[in-house]
Amino acid sequence: xxxxxxxxxxxxxxxxxxxxxxxxxxxxxxxxxxxxxxxxxxxxxxxxxxxxxxxxxxxxxxxxxxxxxxxxxxxxxxxxxxxxxxxxxxxxxxxxxxxxxxxxxxxxxxxxxxxxxxxxxxxxxxxxxxxxxxxxxxxxxxxxxxxxxxxxxxxxxxxxxxxxxxxxxxxxxxxxxxxxxxxxxxxxxxxxxxxxxxxxxxxxxxxxxxxxxxxxxxxxxxxxxxxxxxxxxxxxxxxxxxxxxxxxxxxxxxxxxxxxxxxxxxxxxxxxxxxxxxxxxxxxxxxxxxxxxxxxxxxxxxxxxxx
Amino acid sequence: xxxxxxxxxxxxxxxxxxxxxxxxxxxxxxxxxxxxxxxxxxxxxxxxxxxxxxxxxxxxxxxxxxxxxxxxxxxxxxxxxxxxxxxxxxxxxxxxxxxxxxxxxxxxxxxxxxxxxxxxxxxxxxxxxxxxxxxxxxxxxxxxxxxxxxxxxxxxxxxxxxxxxxxxxxxxxxxxxxxxxxxxxxxxxxxxxxxxxxxxxxxxxxxxxxxxxxxxxxxxxxxxxxxxxxxxxxxxxxxxxxxxxxxxxxxxxxxxxxxxxxxxxxxxxxxxxxxxxxxxxxxxxxxxxxxxxxx
Lengths: 307, 295
Known about the structure:
- The complex is a heterodimer.
- By secondary structure, chain A is mostly helical.
- Chain A contains 13 helices and two strands.
- By secondary structure, chain B is mainly α.
- In chain B, a hairpin with a 4-residue loop joins strand 1 (about 140) and strand 2 (about 145).
Protein backbone atom coordinates (compact mmCIF):
# COMPACT_ATOMS: atom_id res chain seq x y z
CA UNK A 1 0.00 0.00 0.00
CA UNK A 2 1.52 3.40 -0.96
CA UNK A 3 2.36 5.80 1.87
CA UNK A 4 -0.36 8.24 0.86
CA UNK A 5 -3.10 5.60 0.98
CA UNK A 6 -1.79 4.28 4.27
CA UNK A 7 -1.86 7.81 5.69
CA UNK A 8 -5.43 8.34 4.48
CA UNK A 9 -6.61 5.06 6.00
CA UNK A 10 -4.98 5.92 9.31
CA UNK A 11 -6.48 9.39 9.13
CA UNK A 12 -9.93 7.95 8.46
CA UNK A 13 -9.55 5.55 11.37
CA UNK A 14 -8.49 8.34 13.73
CA UNK A 15 -11.35 10.47 12.46
CA UNK A 16 -13.70 7.56 13.12
CA UNK A 17 -12.33 7.12 16.64
CA UNK A 18 -12.84 10.73 17.70
CA UNK A 19 -15.99 11.54 15.66
CA UNK A 20 -18.55 10.36 18.27
CA UNK A 21 -17.13 12.88 20.75
CA UNK A 22 -17.94 15.73 18.40
CA UNK A 23 -20.91 14.54 16.36
CA UNK A 24 -24.08 12.60 17.05
CA UNK A 25 -22.89 8.94 16.99
CA UNK A 26 -25.98 7.62 15.16
CA UNK A 27 -25.39 10.16 12.40
CA UNK A 28 -21.75 9.13 12.03
CA UNK A 29 -22.78 5.46 11.95
CA UNK A 30 -25.22 6.28 9.16
CA UNK A 31 -22.44 7.99 7.22
CA UNK A 32 -20.19 4.95 7.73
CA UNK A 33 -22.82 2.47 6.56
CA UNK A 34 -23.48 4.49 3.42
CA UNK A 35 -19.76 4.97 2.83
CA UNK A 36 -19.34 1.19 2.83
CA UNK A 37 -22.38 0.82 0.56
CA UNK A 38 -21.00 3.37 -1.89
CA UNK A 39 -17.55 1.76 -1.88
CA UNK A 40 -19.10 -1.64 -2.54
CA UNK A 41 -21.05 -0.13 -5.43
CA UNK A 42 -17.93 1.60 -6.72
CA UNK A 43 -16.10 -1.72 -6.75
CA UNK A 44 -18.59 -2.81 -9.41
CA UNK A 45 -18.95 0.44 -11.35
CA UNK A 46 -15.60 2.12 -10.93
CA UNK A 47 -13.40 -0.95 -11.28
CA UNK A 48 -15.62 -3.44 -13.10
CA UNK A 49 -17.26 -0.83 -15.37
CA UNK A 50 -20.68 -2.29 -14.62
CA UNK A 51 -23.42 0.20 -13.81
CA UNK A 52 -25.93 -1.60 -11.61
CA UNK A 53 -29.01 0.50 -11.10
CA UNK A 54 -30.46 -1.91 -8.58
CA UNK A 55 -28.01 -2.06 -5.73
CA UNK A 56 -30.73 -1.20 -3.23
CA UNK A 57 -31.88 -4.82 -3.66
CA UNK A 58 -28.79 -6.16 -1.86
CA UNK A 59 -28.57 -3.35 0.66
CA UNK A 60 -32.27 -3.59 1.52
CA UNK A 61 -32.74 -7.36 1.48
CA UNK A 62 -29.70 -7.79 3.74
CA UNK A 63 -31.19 -5.28 6.15
CA UNK A 64 -34.46 -7.26 6.18
CA UNK A 65 -32.73 -10.58 6.73
CA UNK A 66 -30.47 -9.36 9.52
CA UNK A 67 -33.34 -7.50 11.20
CA UNK A 68 -35.45 -10.65 11.04
CA UNK A 69 -32.64 -12.87 12.29
CA UNK A 70 -31.96 -10.56 15.21
CA UNK A 71 -35.60 -10.10 16.12
CA UNK A 72 -37.36 -13.39 15.41
CA UNK A 73 -34.50 -15.82 15.88
CA UNK A 74 -32.68 -13.86 18.58
CA UNK A 75 -29.35 -13.95 16.73
CA UNK A 76 -26.43 -11.98 18.12
CA UNK A 77 -25.68 -8.86 16.06
CA UNK A 78 -22.60 -10.27 14.34
CA UNK A 79 -24.44 -13.45 13.30
CA UNK A 80 -27.44 -11.46 12.12
CA UNK A 81 -25.18 -9.26 10.01
CA UNK A 82 -23.46 -12.33 8.57
CA UNK A 83 -26.86 -13.78 7.67
CA UNK A 84 -27.81 -10.59 5.85
CA UNK A 85 -24.50 -10.44 4.03
CA UNK A 86 -24.80 -14.07 2.96
CA UNK A 87 -28.34 -13.53 1.70
CA UNK A 88 -27.21 -10.50 -0.31
CA UNK A 89 -24.40 -12.57 -1.84
CA UNK A 90 -26.82 -15.32 -2.89
CA UNK A 91 -29.21 -12.76 -4.33
CA UNK A 92 -26.29 -11.12 -6.12
CA UNK A 93 -25.32 -14.48 -7.60
CA UNK A 94 -28.87 -15.09 -8.87
CA UNK A 95 -29.41 -11.64 -10.35
CA UNK A 96 -25.83 -11.17 -11.48
CA UNK A 97 -25.72 -14.41 -13.47
CA UNK A 98 -28.71 -13.18 -15.48
CA UNK A 99 -27.74 -9.52 -15.70
CA UNK A 100 -24.23 -10.05 -17.07
CA UNK A 101 -25.84 -11.51 -20.18
CA UNK A 102 -26.52 -7.95 -21.27
CA UNK A 103 -24.11 -5.05 -21.43
CA UNK A 104 -24.02 -1.30 -21.02
CA UNK A 105 -27.31 0.40 -20.47
CA UNK A 106 -29.23 -2.84 -20.91
CA UNK A 107 -27.30 -4.17 -17.95
CA UNK A 108 -28.39 -1.14 -15.94
CA UNK A 109 -32.04 -1.64 -16.91
CA UNK A 110 -31.96 -5.35 -16.10
CA UNK A 111 -30.50 -4.80 -12.65
CA UNK A 112 -33.04 -2.05 -12.03
CA UNK A 113 -35.94 -4.29 -13.05
CA UNK A 114 -34.77 -7.15 -10.84
CA UNK A 115 -34.35 -4.76 -7.94
CA UNK A 116 -37.94 -3.68 -8.44
CA UNK A 117 -38.94 -7.35 -8.25
CA UNK A 118 -37.13 -7.59 -4.91
CA UNK A 119 -38.99 -4.46 -3.82
CA UNK A 120 -42.38 -6.00 -4.61
CA UNK A 121 -41.33 -9.15 -2.83
CA UNK A 122 -40.37 -7.13 0.25
CA UNK A 123 -43.70 -5.36 0.10
CA UNK A 124 -45.73 -8.58 0.00
CA UNK A 125 -43.70 -11.26 1.77
CA UNK A 126 -45.20 -12.34 5.09
CA UNK A 127 -42.13 -11.66 7.24
CA UNK A 128 -41.19 -8.15 6.12
CA UNK A 129 -44.02 -6.26 7.77
CA UNK A 130 -45.24 -4.61 4.56
CA UNK A 131 -45.35 -0.82 4.75
CA UNK A 132 -44.24 -0.84 8.41
CA UNK A 133 -41.06 -2.81 7.87
CA UNK A 134 -39.41 -4.69 10.73
CA UNK A 135 -39.33 -2.36 13.71
CA UNK A 136 -37.62 -2.32 17.12
CA UNK A 137 -34.94 -4.80 16.13
CA UNK A 138 -32.92 -5.68 19.24
CA UNK A 139 -29.28 -4.59 19.12
CA UNK A 140 -28.39 -7.60 21.27
CA UNK A 141 -25.08 -8.60 22.77
CA UNK A 142 -21.93 -8.82 20.68
CA UNK A 143 -20.75 -12.45 20.80
CA UNK A 144 -23.43 -12.82 23.46
CA UNK A 145 -21.26 -10.84 25.90
CA UNK A 146 -21.04 -7.10 25.25
CA UNK A 147 -24.28 -5.13 25.25
CA UNK A 148 -24.76 -3.09 22.09
CA UNK A 149 -27.49 -0.94 23.64
CA UNK A 150 -25.18 1.98 24.55
CA UNK A 151 -24.50 4.00 21.39
CA UNK A 152 -20.79 4.17 22.20
CA UNK A 153 -20.37 0.35 22.21
CA UNK A 154 -22.33 -0.07 19.01
CA UNK A 155 -20.40 2.76 17.42
CA UNK A 156 -17.02 1.12 17.79
CA UNK A 157 -18.40 -2.20 16.59
CA UNK A 158 -19.77 -0.50 13.46
CA UNK A 159 -16.50 1.37 12.97
CA UNK A 160 -14.70 -1.98 13.07
CA UNK A 161 -17.09 -3.61 10.59
CA UNK A 162 -16.95 -0.72 8.14
CA UNK A 163 -13.19 -0.28 8.37
CA UNK A 164 -12.56 -3.97 7.73
CA UNK A 165 -15.05 -3.77 4.85
CA UNK A 166 -13.13 -0.88 3.31
CA UNK A 167 -9.80 -2.69 3.69
CA UNK A 168 -11.29 -5.77 2.01
CA UNK A 169 -12.42 -3.62 -0.92
CA UNK A 170 -8.98 -2.02 -1.11
CA UNK A 171 -7.40 -5.47 -1.13
CA UNK A 172 -9.70 -6.67 -3.92
CA UNK A 173 -8.97 -3.63 -6.07
CA UNK A 174 -5.22 -4.02 -5.75
CA UNK A 175 -5.10 -7.79 -6.25
CA UNK A 176 -4.40 -9.51 -9.57
CA UNK A 177 -8.17 -10.10 -9.73
CA UNK A 178 -8.69 -6.34 -9.48
CA UNK A 179 -6.20 -5.73 -12.30
CA UNK A 180 -8.08 -8.16 -14.54
CA UNK A 181 -11.27 -6.31 -13.69
CA UNK A 182 -9.78 -3.00 -14.74
CA UNK A 183 -8.65 -4.64 -17.94
CA UNK A 184 -12.20 -5.81 -18.63
CA UNK A 185 -13.55 -2.36 -17.81
CA UNK A 186 -11.19 -0.69 -20.25
CA UNK A 187 -11.32 -3.19 -23.10
CA UNK A 188 -13.33 -6.36 -22.76
CA UNK A 189 -12.62 -7.84 -26.21
CA UNK A 190 -8.90 -7.55 -25.56
CA UNK A 191 -9.23 -9.44 -22.30
CA UNK A 192 -11.28 -12.13 -24.04
CA UNK A 193 -8.60 -12.54 -26.66
CA UNK A 194 -5.99 -12.78 -23.92
CA UNK A 195 -7.86 -15.83 -22.72
CA UNK A 196 -9.73 -14.48 -19.73
CA UNK A 197 -13.24 -15.74 -19.15
CA UNK A 198 -14.53 -12.25 -18.59
CA UNK A 199 -18.04 -13.30 -17.60
CA UNK A 200 -16.68 -15.20 -14.62
CA UNK A 201 -14.77 -12.16 -13.45
CA UNK A 202 -17.80 -9.92 -13.94
CA UNK A 203 -20.01 -12.30 -12.00
CA UNK A 204 -17.44 -12.61 -9.23
CA UNK A 205 -17.17 -8.85 -8.77
CA UNK A 206 -20.95 -8.56 -8.94
CA UNK A 207 -21.34 -11.05 -6.10
CA UNK A 208 -18.58 -9.40 -4.04
CA UNK A 209 -20.14 -6.00 -4.52
CA UNK A 210 -23.61 -7.31 -3.62
CA UNK A 211 -22.26 -9.02 -0.50
CA UNK A 212 -20.45 -5.88 0.68
CA UNK A 213 -23.51 -3.75 -0.05
CA UNK A 214 -25.41 -6.31 2.01
CA UNK A 215 -22.89 -5.96 4.83
CA UNK A 216 -23.59 -2.23 4.84
CA UNK A 217 -27.37 -2.70 4.78
CA UNK A 218 -27.33 -5.36 7.51
CA UNK A 219 -25.21 -3.14 9.75
CA UNK A 220 -27.55 -0.21 9.14
CA UNK A 221 -30.53 -2.36 10.17
CA UNK A 222 -28.88 -3.12 13.52
CA UNK A 223 -27.89 0.53 14.04
CA UNK A 224 -31.34 1.96 13.35
CA UNK A 225 -33.14 -1.13 14.71
CA UNK A 226 -35.27 -0.95 11.60
CA UNK A 227 -35.55 -2.51 8.16
CA UNK A 228 -37.93 -0.68 5.86
CA UNK A 229 -39.05 -0.39 2.26
CA UNK A 230 -36.99 2.79 1.70
CA UNK A 231 -33.87 0.63 1.72
CA UNK A 232 -35.07 -1.57 -1.15
CA UNK A 233 -36.78 1.11 -3.24
CA UNK A 234 -35.06 2.13 -6.46
CA UNK A 235 -34.45 5.69 -5.28
CA UNK A 236 -31.93 4.16 -2.88
CA UNK A 237 -30.13 2.67 -5.88
CA UNK A 238 -30.06 6.15 -7.37
CA UNK A 239 -28.65 7.62 -4.19
CA UNK A 240 -25.71 5.24 -4.10
CA UNK A 241 -24.94 6.06 -7.72
CA UNK A 242 -25.02 9.75 -6.79
CA UNK A 243 -22.65 9.25 -3.85
CA UNK A 244 -20.18 7.42 -6.05
CA UNK A 245 -20.44 9.86 -8.93
CA UNK A 246 -20.06 12.89 -6.68
CA UNK A 247 -17.11 11.48 -4.77
CA UNK A 248 -15.41 10.11 -7.85
CA UNK A 249 -16.06 6.76 -9.48
CA UNK A 250 -13.05 4.58 -9.89
CA UNK A 251 -11.25 6.24 -6.99
CA UNK A 252 -10.67 4.39 -3.72
CA UNK A 253 -11.72 7.15 -1.35
CA UNK A 254 -14.21 9.11 -3.45
CA UNK A 255 -17.35 7.17 -2.50
CA UNK A 256 -16.60 7.70 1.20
CA UNK A 257 -16.56 11.45 0.71
CA UNK A 258 -19.59 11.31 -1.61
CA UNK A 259 -21.57 9.34 0.97
CA UNK A 260 -20.58 11.78 3.72
CA UNK A 261 -21.69 14.78 1.64
CA UNK A 262 -25.03 13.27 0.60
CA UNK A 263 -25.94 11.89 4.04
CA UNK A 264 -25.02 15.22 5.66
CA UNK A 265 -27.13 17.05 3.12
CA UNK A 266 -30.11 14.77 3.73
CA UNK A 267 -29.70 15.06 7.47
CA UNK A 268 -29.41 18.81 7.78
CA UNK A 269 -31.76 19.76 4.96
CA UNK A 270 -34.47 17.26 5.88
CA UNK A 271 -36.82 20.08 6.88
CA UNK A 272 -36.85 21.36 3.30
CA UNK A 273 -38.73 18.27 2.14
CA UNK A 274 -38.67 17.75 -1.60
CA UNK A 275 -36.04 20.41 -2.13
CA UNK A 276 -33.58 17.69 -1.09
CA UNK A 277 -34.65 15.59 -4.08
CA UNK A 278 -34.32 18.58 -6.35
CA UNK A 279 -30.92 19.35 -4.86
CA UNK A 280 -29.79 15.77 -5.48
CA UNK A 281 -31.02 16.00 -9.06
CA UNK A 282 -29.08 19.23 -9.57
CA UNK A 283 -25.93 17.65 -8.11
CA UNK A 284 -26.39 14.74 -10.52
CA UNK A 285 -26.71 17.06 -13.51
CA UNK A 286 -23.80 19.27 -12.47
CA UNK A 287 -21.58 16.27 -11.73
CA UNK A 288 -22.33 14.67 -15.11
CA UNK A 289 -21.95 17.92 -17.05
CA UNK A 290 -19.00 19.56 -15.32
CA UNK A 291 -16.92 17.20 -13.22
CA UNK A 292 -17.33 13.60 -14.17
CA UNK A 293 -14.25 12.64 -12.20
CA UNK A 294 -15.97 13.57 -8.93
CA UNK A 295 -14.46 15.56 -6.07
CA UNK A 296 -11.73 13.09 -5.20
CA UNK A 297 -11.07 12.44 -8.88
CA UNK A 298 -10.37 16.13 -9.40
CA UNK A 299 -8.09 16.26 -6.36
CA UNK A 300 -6.25 13.18 -7.59
CA UNK A 301 -5.70 14.85 -10.95
CA UNK A 302 -4.37 18.00 -9.33
CA UNK A 303 -1.90 16.22 -7.05
CA UNK A 304 -1.19 13.68 -9.82
CA UNK A 305 -1.55 10.63 -7.61
CA UNK A 306 -4.22 7.95 -7.68
CA UNK A 307 -6.54 8.23 -4.72
CA UNK B 1 -73.18 -17.58 -17.87
CA UNK B 2 -70.21 -19.70 -18.84
CA UNK B 3 -67.15 -19.80 -16.66
CA UNK B 4 -63.50 -20.03 -17.61
CA UNK B 5 -61.40 -22.07 -15.21
CA UNK B 6 -63.65 -20.97 -12.40
CA UNK B 7 -63.26 -17.27 -13.16
CA UNK B 8 -66.42 -15.32 -13.97
CA UNK B 9 -66.07 -13.84 -17.47
CA UNK B 10 -66.82 -10.29 -16.31
CA UNK B 11 -63.80 -10.41 -14.04
CA UNK B 12 -61.63 -12.00 -16.69
CA UNK B 13 -62.52 -9.56 -19.45
CA UNK B 14 -62.42 -6.64 -17.04
CA UNK B 15 -58.83 -7.46 -16.09
CA UNK B 16 -57.91 -8.14 -19.70
CA UNK B 17 -59.22 -4.69 -20.61
CA UNK B 18 -57.27 -3.15 -17.77
CA UNK B 19 -54.22 -5.05 -18.99
CA UNK B 20 -54.79 -3.82 -22.52
CA UNK B 21 -54.94 -0.24 -21.26
CA UNK B 22 -51.75 -0.58 -19.24
CA UNK B 23 -50.33 -2.23 -22.34
CA UNK B 24 -51.22 0.84 -24.40
CA UNK B 25 -49.16 3.01 -22.08
CA UNK B 26 -46.27 0.52 -22.05
CA UNK B 27 -46.37 0.47 -25.84
CA UNK B 28 -46.34 4.25 -26.33
CA UNK B 29 -43.68 4.78 -23.69
CA UNK B 30 -41.40 2.00 -24.85
CA UNK B 31 -41.87 3.21 -28.42
CA UNK B 32 -40.73 6.70 -27.37
CA UNK B 33 -37.75 5.19 -25.55
CA UNK B 34 -36.89 3.07 -28.57
CA UNK B 35 -36.96 6.03 -30.94
CA UNK B 36 -34.79 8.15 -28.66
CA UNK B 37 -32.43 5.27 -28.01
CA UNK B 38 -32.20 4.51 -31.72
CA UNK B 39 -30.85 7.89 -32.70
CA UNK B 40 -29.35 9.36 -29.54
CA UNK B 41 -28.10 6.13 -28.00
CA UNK B 42 -29.40 7.40 -24.69
CA UNK B 43 -31.73 5.67 -22.32
CA UNK B 44 -34.07 8.48 -21.50
CA UNK B 45 -34.61 8.02 -17.77
CA UNK B 46 -36.57 11.27 -17.80
CA UNK B 47 -39.25 9.51 -19.85
CA UNK B 48 -41.41 8.69 -16.85
CA UNK B 49 -41.17 12.25 -15.56
CA UNK B 50 -42.11 13.54 -19.01
CA UNK B 51 -45.14 11.26 -19.05
CA UNK B 52 -46.09 12.65 -15.62
CA UNK B 53 -45.54 16.18 -16.93
CA UNK B 54 -47.96 15.44 -19.75
CA UNK B 55 -50.69 14.57 -17.26
CA UNK B 56 -49.92 17.62 -15.12
CA UNK B 57 -49.79 20.09 -17.99
CA UNK B 58 -53.16 18.76 -19.15
CA UNK B 59 -54.51 19.32 -15.63
CA UNK B 60 -53.04 22.84 -15.51
CA UNK B 61 -54.44 23.76 -18.91
CA UNK B 62 -57.88 22.72 -17.72
CA UNK B 63 -57.77 24.32 -14.29
CA UNK B 64 -55.81 27.49 -14.99
CA UNK B 65 -56.76 28.25 -18.59
CA UNK B 66 -59.96 26.30 -19.05
CA UNK B 67 -58.60 24.38 -22.03
CA UNK B 68 -60.43 21.05 -22.14
CA UNK B 69 -59.16 17.53 -22.82
CA UNK B 70 -59.35 17.74 -26.61
CA UNK B 71 -57.21 20.84 -26.74
CA UNK B 72 -54.79 19.35 -24.25
CA UNK B 73 -54.35 16.27 -26.41
CA UNK B 74 -52.74 18.49 -29.04
CA UNK B 75 -51.16 21.30 -27.02
CA UNK B 76 -49.57 19.22 -24.25
CA UNK B 77 -47.30 17.12 -26.47
CA UNK B 78 -46.14 20.34 -28.16
CA UNK B 79 -45.36 22.10 -24.87
CA UNK B 80 -43.66 19.13 -23.22
CA UNK B 81 -41.92 18.19 -26.47
CA UNK B 82 -40.53 21.74 -26.58
CA UNK B 83 -39.11 21.39 -23.07
CA UNK B 84 -37.52 18.17 -24.28
CA UNK B 85 -35.92 20.04 -27.19
CA UNK B 86 -34.51 22.61 -24.78
CA UNK B 87 -33.07 19.86 -22.56
CA UNK B 88 -31.54 18.13 -25.54
CA UNK B 89 -29.90 21.32 -26.84
CA UNK B 90 -28.68 22.53 -23.47
CA UNK B 91 -27.54 19.33 -21.80
CA UNK B 92 -27.94 15.98 -23.52
CA UNK B 93 -26.28 17.02 -26.79
CA UNK B 94 -23.05 17.63 -24.91
CA UNK B 95 -22.75 13.98 -23.89
CA UNK B 96 -22.91 12.11 -27.19
CA UNK B 97 -19.19 11.56 -27.40
CA UNK B 98 -19.11 9.96 -23.93
CA UNK B 99 -19.99 6.56 -22.51
CA UNK B 100 -23.74 5.73 -22.54
CA UNK B 101 -23.67 5.67 -18.81
CA UNK B 102 -23.48 9.44 -18.54
CA UNK B 103 -26.63 9.95 -20.58
CA UNK B 104 -28.43 7.58 -18.24
CA UNK B 105 -27.12 9.39 -15.18
CA UNK B 106 -27.94 12.85 -16.57
CA UNK B 107 -31.50 11.93 -17.46
CA UNK B 108 -31.88 10.26 -14.06
CA UNK B 109 -30.84 13.54 -12.40
CA UNK B 110 -33.28 15.46 -14.58
CA UNK B 111 -36.05 13.05 -13.57
CA UNK B 112 -35.28 13.73 -9.89
CA UNK B 113 -35.46 17.49 -10.46
CA UNK B 114 -38.73 17.40 -12.41
CA UNK B 115 -40.42 14.98 -9.99
CA UNK B 116 -39.19 17.03 -7.02
CA UNK B 117 -40.58 20.27 -8.44
CA UNK B 118 -44.02 18.80 -9.04
CA UNK B 119 -44.05 17.12 -5.63
CA UNK B 120 -43.18 20.42 -4.00
CA UNK B 121 -45.92 22.23 -5.84
CA UNK B 122 -48.75 19.71 -5.79
CA UNK B 123 -48.00 17.22 -3.01
CA UNK B 124 -48.25 13.49 -3.60
CA UNK B 125 -51.93 12.91 -2.99
CA UNK B 126 -52.97 13.16 -6.64
CA UNK B 127 -55.39 15.42 -8.48
CA UNK B 128 -58.56 14.32 -10.23
CA UNK B 129 -59.04 14.92 -13.96
CA UNK B 130 -62.54 14.30 -15.27
CA UNK B 131 -63.26 12.12 -18.29
CA UNK B 132 -64.37 14.40 -21.16
CA UNK B 133 -68.17 14.26 -21.36
CA UNK B 134 -68.18 13.05 -24.98
CA UNK B 135 -66.49 9.87 -23.75
CA UNK B 136 -68.37 9.39 -20.49
CA UNK B 137 -70.55 6.32 -20.03
CA UNK B 138 -69.94 2.94 -21.56
CA UNK B 139 -71.16 0.09 -23.73
CA UNK B 140 -72.64 -3.16 -22.55
CA UNK B 141 -71.03 -5.76 -24.76
CA UNK B 142 -73.04 -8.63 -23.27
CA UNK B 143 -70.08 -10.38 -21.73
CA UNK B 144 -68.67 -7.23 -20.15
CA UNK B 145 -69.13 -3.50 -19.62
CA UNK B 146 -66.75 -1.36 -21.63
CA UNK B 147 -66.31 2.21 -20.40
CA UNK B 148 -66.09 4.43 -23.50
CA UNK B 149 -63.00 6.27 -22.37
CA UNK B 150 -61.03 3.06 -21.92
CA UNK B 151 -62.00 1.85 -25.35
CA UNK B 152 -60.91 5.20 -26.74
CA UNK B 153 -57.50 4.96 -25.05
CA UNK B 154 -56.81 1.55 -26.54
CA UNK B 155 -57.88 2.61 -30.02
CA UNK B 156 -56.06 5.93 -30.06
CA UNK B 157 -52.82 4.46 -28.73
CA UNK B 158 -52.92 1.76 -31.37
CA UNK B 159 -53.43 4.44 -34.02
CA UNK B 160 -50.58 6.59 -32.69
CA UNK B 161 -48.23 3.61 -32.45
CA UNK B 162 -49.01 2.42 -35.95
CA UNK B 163 -48.74 5.94 -37.37
CA UNK B 164 -45.32 6.30 -35.76
CA UNK B 165 -44.27 2.93 -37.12
CA UNK B 166 -45.47 3.97 -40.59
CA UNK B 167 -43.66 7.32 -40.38
CA UNK B 168 -40.39 5.68 -39.44
CA UNK B 169 -40.47 2.62 -41.67
CA UNK B 170 -42.25 3.91 -44.76
CA UNK B 171 -41.63 7.62 -45.26
CA UNK B 172 -38.65 9.56 -46.56
CA UNK B 173 -38.09 11.38 -43.28
CA UNK B 174 -38.15 8.04 -41.50
CA UNK B 175 -35.61 6.81 -44.00
CA UNK B 176 -33.24 9.66 -43.10
CA UNK B 177 -33.79 8.82 -39.47
CA UNK B 178 -32.95 5.16 -39.91
CA UNK B 179 -29.95 6.03 -42.03
CA UNK B 180 -28.73 8.47 -39.39
CA UNK B 181 -28.90 5.77 -36.71
CA UNK B 182 -26.69 3.57 -38.87
CA UNK B 183 -24.15 6.17 -39.92
CA UNK B 184 -24.62 9.81 -38.89
CA UNK B 185 -21.44 11.03 -40.59
CA UNK B 186 -22.46 9.63 -43.97
CA UNK B 187 -25.99 11.05 -43.70
CA UNK B 188 -24.51 14.41 -42.73
CA UNK B 189 -22.33 14.29 -45.82
CA UNK B 190 -25.46 14.03 -47.95
CA UNK B 191 -26.45 17.47 -46.70
CA UNK B 192 -28.90 16.46 -44.02
CA UNK B 193 -28.71 18.40 -40.79
CA UNK B 194 -28.15 15.47 -38.45
CA UNK B 195 -27.99 17.46 -35.17
CA UNK B 196 -31.36 19.01 -35.96
CA UNK B 197 -32.75 15.59 -36.83
CA UNK B 198 -31.53 14.30 -33.48
CA UNK B 199 -33.04 17.23 -31.60
CA UNK B 200 -36.39 16.81 -33.30
CA UNK B 201 -36.33 13.07 -32.66
CA UNK B 202 -35.81 13.66 -28.97
CA UNK B 203 -38.62 16.22 -28.99
CA UNK B 204 -40.89 13.72 -30.72
CA UNK B 205 -40.07 10.94 -28.28
CA UNK B 206 -40.83 13.26 -25.38
CA UNK B 207 -44.04 14.39 -27.04
CA UNK B 208 -45.12 10.74 -27.28
CA UNK B 209 -44.55 10.34 -23.53
CA UNK B 210 -46.53 13.52 -22.84
CA UNK B 211 -49.34 12.31 -25.10
CA UNK B 212 -49.51 9.12 -23.05
CA UNK B 213 -49.65 11.31 -19.96
CA UNK B 214 -52.72 13.18 -21.25
CA UNK B 215 -54.40 9.87 -22.08
CA UNK B 216 -53.59 8.61 -18.60
CA UNK B 217 -54.82 11.69 -16.73
CA UNK B 218 -58.52 10.74 -16.61
CA UNK B 219 -57.77 7.10 -15.73
CA UNK B 220 -55.18 7.40 -12.99
CA UNK B 221 -55.12 10.31 -10.57
CA UNK B 222 -52.60 12.90 -11.72
CA UNK B 223 -49.70 12.62 -9.30
CA UNK B 224 -45.96 13.29 -9.32
CA UNK B 225 -44.99 9.64 -8.79
CA UNK B 226 -47.02 8.21 -11.66
CA UNK B 227 -44.01 8.24 -13.96
CA UNK B 228 -41.53 6.75 -11.54
CA UNK B 229 -43.57 3.60 -11.10
CA UNK B 230 -44.38 2.98 -14.72
CA UNK B 231 -40.95 3.72 -16.15
CA UNK B 232 -39.30 0.72 -14.52
CA UNK B 233 -41.91 -1.63 -15.95
CA UNK B 234 -41.32 0.03 -19.32
CA UNK B 235 -37.59 -0.66 -18.99
CA UNK B 236 -38.42 -4.31 -18.41
CA UNK B 237 -40.68 -4.22 -21.47
CA UNK B 238 -37.80 -2.78 -23.47
CA UNK B 239 -35.42 -5.50 -22.31
CA UNK B 240 -37.98 -8.20 -23.16
CA UNK B 241 -38.81 -6.76 -26.57
CA UNK B 242 -35.25 -5.85 -27.44
CA UNK B 243 -34.92 -2.36 -28.76
CA UNK B 244 -34.05 -3.30 -32.30
CA UNK B 245 -37.47 -2.89 -33.82
CA UNK B 246 -40.22 -0.32 -33.58
CA UNK B 247 -42.94 -2.88 -34.17
CA UNK B 248 -41.36 -5.09 -31.54
CA UNK B 249 -41.74 -2.48 -28.83
CA UNK B 250 -45.40 -1.92 -29.75
CA UNK B 251 -46.26 -5.62 -29.75
CA UNK B 252 -44.31 -6.30 -26.55
CA UNK B 253 -45.98 -3.36 -24.81
CA UNK B 254 -49.51 -4.49 -25.55
CA UNK B 255 -48.68 -8.16 -25.02
CA UNK B 256 -47.14 -7.67 -21.62
CA UNK B 257 -50.05 -5.49 -20.53
CA UNK B 258 -52.35 -8.41 -21.34
CA UNK B 259 -50.10 -10.89 -19.53
CA UNK B 260 -50.16 -8.64 -16.49
CA UNK B 261 -53.97 -8.49 -16.67
CA UNK B 262 -54.19 -12.29 -16.86
CA UNK B 263 -51.87 -12.60 -13.87
CA UNK B 264 -54.18 -10.31 -11.94
CA UNK B 265 -57.02 -12.76 -12.51
CA UNK B 266 -55.28 -16.03 -11.85
CA UNK B 267 -52.55 -15.08 -9.38
CA UNK B 268 -53.09 -11.56 -8.04
CA UNK B 269 -50.07 -11.58 -5.71
CA UNK B 270 -47.80 -12.13 -8.67
CA UNK B 271 -49.21 -9.47 -10.96
CA UNK B 272 -46.64 -6.85 -9.92
CA UNK B 273 -43.70 -9.11 -10.68
CA UNK B 274 -44.90 -11.18 -13.62
CA UNK B 275 -43.22 -8.86 -16.14
CA UNK B 276 -39.91 -9.12 -14.31
CA UNK B 277 -40.22 -12.92 -14.19
CA UNK B 278 -40.77 -12.93 -17.94
CA UNK B 279 -37.76 -10.69 -18.29
CA UNK B 280 -35.64 -13.20 -16.38
CA UNK B 281 -36.83 -16.04 -18.61
CA UNK B 282 -36.23 -14.07 -21.80
CA UNK B 283 -32.74 -13.17 -20.63
CA UNK B 284 -32.03 -16.85 -20.07
CA UNK B 285 -33.35 -17.99 -23.42
CA UNK B 286 -32.80 -15.07 -25.74
CA UNK B 287 -30.59 -12.40 -24.16
CA UNK B 288 -31.08 -9.94 -27.03
CA UNK B 289 -34.83 -9.81 -26.43
CA UNK B 290 -37.72 -11.22 -28.42
CA UNK B 291 -37.40 -8.81 -31.34
CA UNK B 292 -33.83 -7.68 -30.76
CA UNK B 293 -30.84 -8.28 -32.93
CA UNK B 294 -27.70 -9.66 -31.33
CA UNK B 295 -25.24 -6.76 -31.17
